[in-house]
Amino acid sequence: MGSVFQWSVTRVKTFQECRRRYYYRYLLAPLSRTRDKTPESVQAANLQDLVGLEAWAGQLVHQMIEETLNQWRWGRAFTEQQALARASKLVRQQHRDSWAYCAGERESFQQRPVRLDYHYYKDRGQPKEAIRALEVRILTAISAFFQSDLAEWLRGLDRAGWLPIDRNASVNLEDGTQVLVRPDLAFREDGIVQIIDWKTGRVDTVWSLVQLSCYALYAAQKWEVRPERIQPRIVSLYPRFEEIDIGWTPDAISAVRLRIDETREEMEALLTLDENEVLPPIERFELTSECRACRWCAFREMCEGACRVAERG
User: Of 136, 159, 270, 274, whose CB has the highest number of CB atoms within 10 Å?
Assistant: First the structure.
């Protein structure tokens, strides 16, 4: 499976929630980009990018804040009203494009648009009121950002204070583990490296603590700072701007290193290959015991878990 083992909070959560979904997303789908691709791997790759409504809302909020910060970083004005207008336009455009693409109008698109899972599966409708409520949630989160003291401070931050985050940010550990991270924002204030992670949904404090510790590992390696000079922060934007104190301290880094080692060992136990095998047998990767999750899984088109749900009604 390669000499570099890639680890991330998202991968481990997926592995622990449903090992079969982990198999489809992180083992089978990537095979479609190799000479060993199969029809099943192409199908998995097609399904892995389907987006649920909650995730779509979060993506749009993150996109608008990123666009705003890029404008401010270069000293350009970009107001709350501009951001809200653009967000509303994106909601309508992406929703319309998703429906059209999934309905078969693919020749009109030069590249594949955001695809919402309920458009793809055509198995549950969403009334206009529900989409409008989602738009209100997106706009509320964006306004919460703009009206915060943090946004006001960032608007005036000197360009030298912004810290660049790699497109494919990662930390390389001594044992060959590559820890993948995706912090939303980093800047330096009074010698302290601040790392921000925006949240638009429920905050899982246990996994957020792991996530912040991974960000601290990344900051220490990239900007060569000691852990005590790093301050990772969780900021919730809905229903209001609120910084969530999850009790992170530099001591948490040692705990997360241990968690990485333990979960890597558990995951690698399923990844061993016999001679001439390209992927480990799918049977090793058990279905989740939470059948309800199968109803909304992106891979339900090809997974027997969906059949199990249908049989139970």
Answer: 270
